[in-house]
Amino acid sequence: MCKKTKIMDMYILSRVFDSTFDAVVPLGVHKMELSKFLLPGFKMTATLASGVFCGTAISFLFTDLPIYLTIEPSVAIESFRIKLERSSNYQGPLGILIILSTSSVYLLDRKNGFPWLLGGLLFASSGILSGSFIKKPIARLLQETKSREVVQENFLELGKLHLVRTVIGFAGFGIFVYQLAFT
Length: 183
Fold this sequence. Notes:
Structural class: mainly alpha
Shape: elongated
Number of strands: 0
Helix content: over 70%
Strand content: under 5%
Distance between the termini: 36 Å
Largest sheet: none
Order of helices and strands: HHHHH
Low-confidence stretches: 20-25
Mean pLDDT: 85
């Protein structure tokens, strides 16, 4: 695809967004008025959701993981299984909420919204990392109970990958906090 085609596609998408926006907004409400109302809400939603997301990641790294490495392997695996089931109920939807909120900020304020989009893309890459790499050590952990050494090795591998994901997420969260505080 040539550069001219890409630019044309971006122009068409922006026109579709603008016409869709005009279609769903009641008469008498201007786009600027609505964006002034919605923009802070989307920014706060992205920041709060990413804060919760990062908080649970830190909790896993500094609280849960050290415990899993010291307790009986079968207990560690069962405890991890329970935590995984609970966290998977909200981590995915929370990540989607972050991505949708940051995309909305960008679409409503293209001039100043790029840092928000960048933060959302960081969270999206964190999700891709989880789906691609973190699932492997999790699958190995949830198989039949193994020796303490094998379980600890799998938890350590999971911890290293989770640390990378946490750093990426905190970079996004840092962008959001900076944008709220200084722009």
